[in-house]
Amino acid sequence: MSLGVVAFLVLSTACGTGFSEPDDGRKRVVTTFTVIADMARNIAGDKIVVESITKPGTEIHEYEPTPSDMLRAAKADLVLDNGLGLERWFDKFVQRSEAEHVTLTEGVEPIPIRSGEYQGKANPHAWMSPRTAMTYVNNIRDTFIRLDPANTATFHANAERYLHRLTEIDQYLRDELAALPEQHRALVTCEGAFSYLARDAGLREAYLWPVNSDAEGTPQQIKATTRFVRDNAVPTVFCESTVNDEPQQQVARETGARLGEKLYVDSLSGPDGPVPTYLDLLRHDAEAIVDGLRGGAR
After folding, report:
1. Domain 181-293: which topology?
2. Each residue of 106-157: pLDDT tens digit?
3. Could you tell me which residues come within 8 angstroms of residue 183 by beta carbon, excluding any fewer than 6 positions away?
4. Which architecture characterizes domain 10-172 according to CATH?
5. In 10 A of CB 235, how many CB atoms?
6. Structure letter (DSSP) for residue 240
Protein backbone atom coordinates (compact mmCIF):
# COMPACT_ATOMS: atom_id res chain seq x y z
CA MET A 1 0.00 0.00 0.00
CA SER A 2 1.30 3.47 -0.87
CA LEU A 3 0.45 6.75 0.72
CA GLY A 4 0.15 8.05 -2.82
CA VAL A 5 -3.36 6.61 -2.92
CA VAL A 6 -4.39 8.68 0.07
CA ALA A 7 -5.60 12.17 -0.79
CA PHE A 8 -3.75 14.84 1.12
CA LEU A 9 -5.18 18.29 0.41
CA VAL A 10 -2.38 20.66 1.35
CA LEU A 11 -3.68 24.09 2.13
CA SER A 12 -0.39 25.89 1.58
CA THR A 13 2.71 24.93 -0.38
CA ALA A 14 4.71 28.15 -0.55
CA CYS A 15 8.07 28.00 1.18
CA GLY A 16 9.59 31.36 0.28
CA THR A 17 11.20 33.56 2.86
CA GLY A 18 10.57 37.00 1.40
CA PHE A 19 8.67 38.90 4.06
CA SER A 20 6.00 41.03 2.45
CA GLU A 21 4.37 43.93 4.21
CA PRO A 22 0.70 43.08 4.81
CA ASP A 23 -1.44 46.12 4.16
CA ASP A 24 -4.75 44.59 5.22
CA GLY A 25 -4.31 44.38 8.98
CA ARG A 26 -3.24 40.74 9.11
CA LYS A 27 -0.84 39.66 11.84
CA ARG A 28 2.73 38.73 10.95
CA VAL A 29 4.43 35.55 12.17
CA VAL A 30 8.01 34.43 11.59
CA THR A 31 9.29 30.91 12.22
CA THR A 32 12.82 29.64 12.59
CA PHE A 33 12.68 27.06 9.78
CA THR A 34 10.61 25.89 6.85
CA VAL A 35 8.95 22.87 8.44
CA ILE A 36 7.15 24.80 11.15
CA ALA A 37 6.41 27.63 8.71
CA ASP A 38 4.50 25.16 6.53
CA MET A 39 2.60 23.79 9.53
CA ALA A 40 1.72 27.34 10.59
CA ARG A 41 0.54 28.35 7.12
CA ASN A 42 -1.81 25.40 7.03
CA ILE A 43 -3.39 26.46 10.31
CA ALA A 44 -3.41 30.17 9.41
CA GLY A 45 -4.95 29.84 5.95
CA ASP A 46 -5.12 33.37 4.57
CA LYS A 47 -5.78 34.99 7.94
CA ILE A 48 -2.15 35.43 9.07
CA VAL A 49 1.06 36.10 7.12
CA VAL A 50 3.65 33.40 7.95
CA GLU A 51 7.28 33.38 6.82
CA SER A 52 10.33 31.22 7.55
CA ILE A 53 13.66 32.80 8.42
CA THR A 54 15.70 29.96 6.91
CA LYS A 55 15.34 29.00 3.26
CA PRO A 56 14.55 25.55 1.79
CA GLY A 57 17.56 23.25 2.01
CA THR A 58 19.23 25.19 4.86
CA GLU A 59 20.91 23.27 7.67
CA ILE A 60 19.12 24.57 10.75
CA HIS A 61 21.41 23.67 13.67
CA GLU A 62 24.23 26.17 13.10
CA TYR A 63 22.38 28.83 11.12
CA GLU A 64 23.72 32.38 11.48
CA PRO A 65 20.95 35.03 11.44
CA THR A 66 21.50 37.95 9.06
CA PRO A 67 20.64 41.62 9.66
CA SER A 68 17.54 41.18 7.48
CA ASP A 69 16.50 38.25 9.68
CA MET A 70 16.77 40.49 12.73
CA LEU A 71 14.61 43.09 11.00
CA ARG A 72 11.92 40.51 10.29
CA ALA A 73 11.88 39.49 13.93
CA ALA A 74 11.65 43.11 15.02
CA LYS A 75 8.59 43.69 12.82
CA ALA A 76 6.78 40.45 13.67
CA ASP A 77 3.79 40.05 15.96
CA LEU A 78 4.84 36.52 16.88
CA VAL A 79 7.92 34.29 16.57
CA LEU A 80 7.59 30.49 16.54
CA ASP A 81 10.55 28.26 17.36
CA ASN A 82 11.04 24.52 17.82
CA GLY A 83 12.98 24.58 21.07
CA LEU A 84 14.70 21.55 22.67
CA GLY A 85 18.04 23.14 21.76
CA LEU A 86 17.52 22.96 17.99
CA GLU A 87 18.04 26.63 17.20
CA ARG A 88 21.25 27.40 19.03
CA TRP A 89 21.20 30.86 17.48
CA PHE A 90 17.69 31.69 18.66
CA ASP A 91 18.50 33.98 21.60
CA LYS A 92 20.52 36.24 19.31
CA PHE A 93 17.70 36.17 16.79
CA VAL A 94 14.96 37.40 19.13
CA GLN A 95 16.95 39.83 21.27
CA ARG A 96 15.84 42.83 19.15
CA SER A 97 12.22 41.78 18.88
CA GLU A 98 9.45 42.67 21.29
CA ALA A 99 7.18 40.07 19.68
CA GLU A 100 5.78 37.22 21.72
CA HIS A 101 7.63 33.99 21.05
CA VAL A 102 6.18 30.52 21.45
CA THR A 103 8.10 27.23 21.60
CA LEU A 104 6.13 24.59 19.72
CA THR A 105 7.54 21.57 21.57
CA GLU A 106 5.89 22.69 24.80
CA GLY A 107 4.09 19.56 26.02
CA VAL A 108 6.31 17.09 24.11
CA GLU A 109 7.96 14.38 26.21
CA PRO A 110 11.67 14.83 25.31
CA ILE A 111 13.88 11.91 24.34
CA PRO A 112 17.43 12.29 25.73
CA ILE A 113 20.41 11.95 23.41
CA ARG A 114 22.30 8.76 24.25
CA SER A 115 25.88 9.63 23.32
CA GLY A 116 28.35 12.25 22.17
CA GLU A 117 28.90 15.80 23.32
CA TYR A 118 25.15 16.37 23.72
CA GLN A 119 24.53 13.24 25.79
CA GLY A 120 21.63 13.70 28.20
CA LYS A 121 20.23 16.74 26.39
CA ALA A 122 16.90 16.55 24.59
CA ASN A 123 16.79 15.30 21.04
CA PRO A 124 15.26 18.28 19.21
CA HIS A 125 13.73 16.47 16.19
CA ALA A 126 10.26 15.94 17.63
CA TRP A 127 8.50 17.02 14.42
CA MET A 128 9.75 13.88 12.64
CA SER A 129 7.01 11.78 14.25
CA PRO A 130 3.52 12.45 12.84
CA ARG A 131 2.08 11.63 16.25
CA THR A 132 4.34 14.02 18.13
CA ALA A 133 3.77 16.69 15.48
CA MET A 134 0.15 16.85 16.63
CA THR A 135 1.43 18.73 19.70
CA TYR A 136 2.95 21.33 17.37
CA VAL A 137 -0.36 21.74 15.54
CA ASN A 138 -2.32 22.15 18.77
CA ASN A 139 0.18 24.72 20.04
CA ILE A 140 0.04 26.68 16.77
CA ARG A 141 -3.76 26.65 16.79
CA ASP A 142 -4.00 27.86 20.38
CA THR A 143 -1.37 30.54 19.80
CA PHE A 144 -3.10 31.85 16.68
CA ILE A 145 -6.41 32.00 18.53
CA ARG A 146 -4.79 34.21 21.17
CA LEU A 147 -3.11 36.32 18.49
CA ASP A 148 -6.20 36.73 16.30
CA PRO A 149 -9.36 35.66 18.16
CA ALA A 150 -11.66 36.95 15.42
CA ASN A 151 -10.57 33.99 13.26
CA THR A 152 -10.90 31.28 15.90
CA ALA A 153 -13.29 29.17 13.82
CA THR A 154 -10.90 29.13 10.85
CA PHE A 155 -7.94 28.08 12.98
CA HIS A 156 -9.95 25.29 14.61
CA ALA A 157 -11.22 23.93 11.28
CA ASN A 158 -7.80 24.08 9.60
CA ALA A 159 -6.13 22.38 12.56
CA GLU A 160 -8.67 19.56 12.56
CA ARG A 161 -8.08 18.87 8.86
CA TYR A 162 -4.34 18.93 9.36
CA LEU A 163 -4.47 16.63 12.39
CA HIS A 164 -6.50 14.17 10.31
CA ARG A 165 -3.75 14.06 7.67
CA LEU A 166 -1.09 13.50 10.31
CA THR A 167 -3.18 10.65 11.71
CA GLU A 168 -3.39 9.05 8.25
CA ILE A 169 0.39 9.09 7.84
CA ASP A 170 0.93 7.76 11.36
CA GLN A 171 -1.54 4.93 10.77
CA TYR A 172 0.03 4.03 7.42
CA LEU A 173 3.45 3.77 9.03
CA ARG A 174 2.24 1.70 11.98
CA ASP A 175 0.19 -0.68 9.81
CA GLU A 176 2.98 -1.28 7.29
CA LEU A 177 5.66 -1.78 9.94
CA ALA A 178 3.45 -4.21 11.87
CA ALA A 179 3.39 -6.42 8.76
CA LEU A 180 7.19 -6.73 8.67
CA PRO A 181 9.19 -9.47 10.39
CA GLU A 182 10.06 -8.25 13.86
CA GLN A 183 13.81 -8.43 13.19
CA HIS A 184 13.41 -5.96 10.32
CA ARG A 185 11.77 -3.30 12.47
CA ALA A 186 14.98 -1.36 13.00
CA LEU A 187 15.81 2.07 11.63
CA VAL A 188 19.46 2.97 11.00
CA THR A 189 20.25 6.54 9.92
CA CYS A 190 23.23 8.90 9.73
CA GLU A 191 21.91 11.50 12.18
CA GLY A 192 19.77 10.54 15.16
CA ALA A 193 16.83 12.58 13.88
CA PHE A 194 14.23 9.82 14.02
CA SER A 195 14.10 8.97 17.73
CA TYR A 196 10.54 10.28 18.14
CA LEU A 197 9.33 8.47 15.04
CA ALA A 198 11.06 5.26 16.17
CA ARG A 199 9.49 5.52 19.62
CA ASP A 200 5.99 6.17 18.31
CA ALA A 201 6.16 3.58 15.50
CA GLY A 202 7.72 0.78 17.55
CA LEU A 203 11.11 0.70 15.80
CA ARG A 204 14.49 -0.08 17.28
CA GLU A 205 16.94 2.67 16.38
CA ALA A 206 20.61 3.16 15.63
CA TYR A 207 22.51 6.06 14.09
CA LEU A 208 26.05 7.17 13.35
CA TRP A 209 25.92 10.47 15.23
CA PRO A 210 23.20 11.96 17.46
CA VAL A 211 22.94 15.48 15.97
CA ASN A 212 24.90 17.46 13.40
CA SER A 213 28.37 18.05 14.81
CA ASP A 214 32.02 18.17 13.82
CA ALA A 215 32.50 14.51 14.71
CA GLU A 216 30.46 12.87 11.94
CA GLY A 217 31.25 9.34 10.83
CA THR A 218 34.13 8.54 13.16
CA PRO A 219 35.62 5.03 13.09
CA GLN A 220 33.95 4.28 16.43
CA GLN A 221 30.56 5.40 15.12
CA ILE A 222 30.91 3.32 11.97
CA LYS A 223 32.02 0.27 13.95
CA ALA A 224 29.10 0.46 16.39
CA THR A 225 26.55 1.01 13.63
CA THR A 226 28.00 -1.83 11.53
CA ARG A 227 27.68 -4.17 14.51
CA PHE A 228 24.04 -3.16 15.04
CA VAL A 229 23.18 -3.73 11.36
CA ARG A 230 24.82 -7.17 11.33
CA ASP A 231 23.36 -8.28 14.68
CA ASN A 232 19.84 -7.28 13.63
CA ALA A 233 20.03 -8.28 9.95
CA VAL A 234 18.89 -4.78 8.98
CA PRO A 235 18.15 -4.85 5.21
CA THR A 236 18.49 -1.12 4.50
CA VAL A 237 20.28 1.84 6.09
CA PHE A 238 19.49 5.50 5.45
CA CYS A 239 21.02 8.96 5.43
CA GLU A 240 19.51 12.43 5.52
CA SER A 241 19.54 14.85 2.60
CA THR A 242 21.59 17.58 4.30
CA VAL A 243 24.53 15.46 5.52
CA ASN A 244 27.41 13.49 3.99
CA ASP A 245 26.39 9.87 3.37
CA GLU A 246 29.91 8.45 2.85
CA PRO A 247 30.10 6.93 6.36
CA GLN A 248 26.75 5.20 5.82
CA GLN A 249 27.95 3.95 2.43
CA GLN A 250 30.79 2.26 4.31
CA VAL A 251 28.32 0.64 6.72
CA ALA A 252 26.33 -0.65 3.74
CA ARG A 253 29.43 -2.07 2.05
CA GLU A 254 30.64 -3.83 5.19
CA THR A 255 27.28 -5.38 6.03
CA GLY A 256 25.67 -6.00 2.65
CA ALA A 257 22.74 -3.74 3.57
CA ARG A 258 21.26 -1.43 0.95
CA LEU A 259 21.65 2.32 1.21
CA GLY A 260 18.06 3.50 1.02
CA GLU A 261 16.51 6.59 -0.45
CA LYS A 262 17.51 9.93 1.07
CA LEU A 263 15.41 10.98 4.04
CA TYR A 264 14.38 14.59 4.68
CA VAL A 265 14.52 16.12 8.15
CA ASP A 266 15.57 19.72 8.79
CA SER A 267 14.22 21.45 5.72
CA LEU A 268 11.64 21.32 3.00
CA SER A 269 12.68 21.46 -0.63
CA GLY A 270 11.72 24.21 -3.04
CA PRO A 271 8.26 24.09 -4.66
CA ASP A 272 9.52 21.85 -7.49
CA GLY A 273 11.49 19.51 -5.22
CA PRO A 274 10.49 16.18 -3.68
CA VAL A 275 9.19 17.56 -0.34
CA PRO A 276 7.70 21.04 -0.87
CA THR A 277 5.44 20.64 2.18
CA TYR A 278 5.77 19.08 5.60
CA LEU A 279 3.15 16.45 4.79
CA ASP A 280 5.15 15.56 1.68
CA LEU A 281 8.25 15.20 3.87
CA LEU A 282 6.51 12.84 6.27
CA ARG A 283 4.92 10.85 3.47
CA HIS A 284 8.22 10.54 1.55
CA ASP A 285 10.14 9.38 4.63
CA ALA A 286 7.43 6.95 5.72
CA GLU A 287 7.29 5.28 2.31
CA ALA A 288 11.09 5.17 1.99
CA ILE A 289 11.46 3.58 5.45
CA VAL A 290 8.73 1.00 4.85
CA ASP A 291 10.07 0.02 1.43
CA GLY A 292 13.64 -0.14 2.71
CA LEU A 293 12.80 -2.32 5.70
CA ARG A 294 10.87 -4.66 3.42
CA GLY A 295 14.22 -5.16 1.69
CA GLY A 296 13.02 -3.60 -1.53
CA ALA A 297 14.32 -0.74 -3.61
CA ARG A 298 12.21 2.13 -4.80
Report:
1. Rossmann fold (3.40.50)
2. 999 999 988 777 788 999 999 999 999 999 999 999 999 999 999 999 999 9
3. 232, 233
4. 3-Layer(aba) Sandwich (3.40)
5. 22
6. B
